[in-house]
Amino acid sequence: MNTPATASSTDSVTAAANTAASAPRVNRLRARAWRHPGLWIGGGLTLALVLAALLSYVWTPWPPLEMQLDRKLLPPSTSHWLGTDVMGRDVVSQLLVGARSSIFVGLIAVGIGLLIGTALGLLAAARRGWMEELILRMTDVTFAFPAILTAIMLAAVWGPGMVNAMIAIGIFNIPTFIRVTRAGANALWTREFVLAARACGKNRWRITWEHILPNILAILIVQASIQFAIAILAEAALSYLGLGTQPPQPSWGRMLADAQTLMFSHPMLAVYPGVAIALTVLGLNFLGDALRDLLDPKISEGGR
């Protein structure tokens, strides 16, 4: 039987060996990152979204909620760079504040799915048996209710709004993270370092926390970036249907809904938020693909 001192020294030696072995891989990862075009494109578009959202807290060309009916549907000019909408609100100001709404909804929705889904996925992989089967059947039931349908049900009970949209999208994300986490964890439970940890007397929960979770973080980061893009699309769709962000709070989906009756007379009012959504989702997809290429051991080692 291993004594605490022996186990501690074993952990120290293992940690030192892992640190020494990971140093060359970190250097290779850094070199690949500098040469990866998808990382630059995706990172640049995502950074532009974040900067636009942060800028909206301290400055917008015009107050985003200020309606000037005598200045409605103005063309682009030096005063209103992208013109005004049907209520006389500045389009640029609405786009900046809409970026804030998209990021906020995406972060909360992905956070709900990440925290709950990861915990349940790790539990399923650690316990196996009836617990794993129960969790998987729960994910099957959840998959039967997409985000839009869940938002409709929540709106019928509590009314439409941003909070209900975040909850609906978050519930939709949970089964995805459960399956990704469980698959990654199951692949690690048969690895030599996990068997060595069990031989040292560590229980399943300690192994899960100290060895399984750190080694699937890369997978979870990549999945989170993909789900973030999906959450932004879902929020725009829910807002377009009137189930998400409610007026007068600006939202890209609400801007599309307001512009649909003006498609023939003022089509650019729909183009601006549509392009913003498309570039944001494109950037997050580029970023997710780049992170997958860089963090997936099979791909990164194969591309050396």
From TrEMBL:
InterPro entries: BP-dependent_transpt_permease (IPR050366), MetI-like (IPR000515), MetI-like_sf (IPR035906)
Entries under PROSITE patterns matching the protein: ABC_TM1 (PS50928)
Leader peptide range in chain numbering: none
Keyword Transport: yes
Stretches that traverse the bilayer: 38-59, 103-126, 138-157, 163-181, 212-234, 269-288
Localization per Swiss-Prot or TrEMBL: Cell membrane
Membership in a protein family: Belongs to the binding-protein-dependent transport system permease family.
Annotated protein name in UniProt: Peptide/nickel transport system permease protein
